[in-house]
Design goal:
Elements lengths: L2 H22 L7 H25 L7 H19 L3 H23 L4 H21 L1 H4 L5 E2 L4 E5 L2 E4 L3 H23 L2 H11 L1 H6 L4 H27 L1 E2 L6 H14 L6 H16 L6 H15 L3 H21 L23
Antiparallel strand pairs: 1-4, 2-3
C-alpha cells in the first residue's frame, strides 16, 4: 500500500473512532471522556488557527486568544440579548472574530518575525484589559453564563446542547467542516501563495504575489478558525469569560500546533489531543503536571522537529520503502544483462 493509501485509511479510522465515541465510552463507564474529546476538538481549532499562520505563512502569532475570546463573547451575547440559536450564535461569533482580525491584521501583517509576534500580544492584551474593565457587559473575570440553546427544532422534536450526545456530534460536525474548509484553502491557489510567501516573501513579490494581501487574508481566516473555536467553547460550557483572552491561552495553542506539527493539516488535532489527554491523566495525582508537559514539548522539538505529523510521515515513508525493497525482484549476476560483459576478442589482440 502506498503512503497516500495508508494515510487515507488512517483518516477513515480516525473519523470512525470519533463518531463512535458517544456510543462506546458510556459502555466502558467513561462518559466523562466524551466531554474531554469534545474539548480536544474545540481547542484543536484554536491550534489550527496558529498553524495556518505559522505553518503555512510563516507568521508566529501569540494573539489568537483575542479572536477566540471575541468569538466566545459574540456567541454568548447574541444568545443572551438577541435570543439567537446555536447556528446564529456560531455565525455571529465567527463574523465578530473575523471583523476583529481584519482590524488588527491591517496593522499586524505589515510586520514580520518577532515584531509580528509582539504586536499580536499587544492587541490581545489591549482587548483583554478592555474586556476585564467592561464588567457590566462581559462579566470580567467572573464571566457571563447562559442556558443551552437548541441545535435544531422541528415540530415537537428538539435537539438541545443539554444532551451530551447531541452536543458532541454538533461539535464534531462543526470542527470537521472547519478542517474540510481549511484543507480546501491550503490546496487551492491561495494556499500555494501562502506557502510561497512563507518560503521567500521577496521572491513571491517578484513573481507578482501581493505579499501584504496574502498575509492579511491568512490572518483573517485564522481569526475565523479561532472565532469558531471560541464560539463552540462558549456553547460547550454555556459560559464566556475575559480570562480566556489572556495571552497564555495563545501560548498553549502555539505549543499544541508545534507538538502536533506546524504545516500539516491534522497536526494541531494530534498535538492538542496528546497534551490534553496527558494533562487529564497526570493532573489527577500530580499538581505540577505542567513540568511534564514542558518536558514532552522539549522532547518533541528535539527528536521530532516537524511534530507528530512529521514523525508519522517519516514512519510511513520508511515502511513503504522497506516494503518496496522487499518486493523488488532480484536478478542473478550471471543473467543480469546489465552485469554481463562481452568477452575479449583474442583473435584481434583485443
Amino acid at each position: 500500500m502506498t503512503t497516500v493509501g495508508i494515510s487515507r485509511a488512517a483518516l477513515v479510522l480516525l473519523l470512525t473512532a470519533l463518531i463512535a465515541v458517544p456510543m462506546v465510552l458510556p459502555k466502558l463507564g467513561s462518559s466523562f471522556w466524551i466531554d474531554i474529546v469534545a474539548e480536544i476538538l474545540i481547542w484543536s481549532l484554536l491550534a489550527a488557527s496558529v498553524n495556518l499562520l505559522l505553518g503555512y505563512v510563516g507568521l508566529l502569532s501569540f494573539g489568537q486568544a483575542l479572536y477566540f475570546g471575541v468569538g466566545m463573547y459574540g456567541a454568548a451575547l447574541s444568545v443572551i440579548h438577541w435570543g439567537a440559536g446555536f447556528w446564529g450564535g456560531l455565525a455571529i461569533g465567527i463574523i465578530a472574530a473575523m471583523a476583529m482580525a481584519a482590524i488588527a491584521g491591517s496593522v499586524a501583517v505589515r510586520l514580520t518575525w518577532h515584531y509580528f509576534a509582539i504586536i499580536t500580544v499587544v492587541f490581545s492584551l489591549i482587548l483583554y484589559f478592555a474586556a476585564m474593565s467592561s464588567k457590566p457587559l462581559t462579566g470580567g473575570d467572573d464571566g457571563i453564563s447562559f442556558s443551552a440553546p437548541n441545535v435544531l427544532a422541528f415540530g415537537n422534536t428538539r435537539l438541545s446542547l443539554a444532551d451530551q450526545s447531541v452536543q458532541y456530534y454538533t461539535i464534531l460536525l462543526v470542527v470537521a467542516l472547519c478542517y474540510l474548509l481549511f484543507s480546501l484553502v491550503v490546496r487551492s491557489p491561495l494556499g500555494v501563495r501562502f506557502m510561497a510567501v512563507r518560503e521567500n516573501d521577496r521572491r513571491a513579490a517578484l513573481v507578482g504575489i501581493n505579499v501584504y494581501l496574502t498575509r492579511y487574508t491568512a490572518f483573517v481566516l485564522a481569526g475565523a478558525l479561532a472565532g469558531a473555536s471560541g464560539a463552540l467553547f462558549a456553547f460547550f460550557g454555556r459560559y464566556a469569560s475575559a480570562s480566556y483572552m489572556f495571552y497564555h491561552v495563545s501560548g498553549e495553542a502555539v505549543v499544541w500546533a508545534i507538538v502536533g506539527g506546524a504545516g500539516s493539516l491534522l497536526g494541531p488535532l494530534f498535538g492538542t489531543g496528546l497534551l490534553i489527554v496527558f494533562r487529564e491523566i497526570i493532573s489527577t495525582f500530580w499538581e505540577h503536571y505542567l513540568f511534564a508537559v514542558g518536558a514532552i514539548t522539549v522532547l518533541v522539538v528535539m527528536f521530532a522537529p516537524r511534530g507528530l505529523a512529521g514523525a508519522w510521515n517519516d514512519l510511513l515513508q520508511l515502511v513503504t520503502r522497506s516494503g518496496a525493497s522487499a518486493s523488488a525482484p532480484t536478478s542473478s549476476p550471471a543473467t543480469d544483462p546489465g552485469l554481463a560483459k562481452p568477452a575479449a576478442d583474442t583473435t584481434s589482440g583485443g
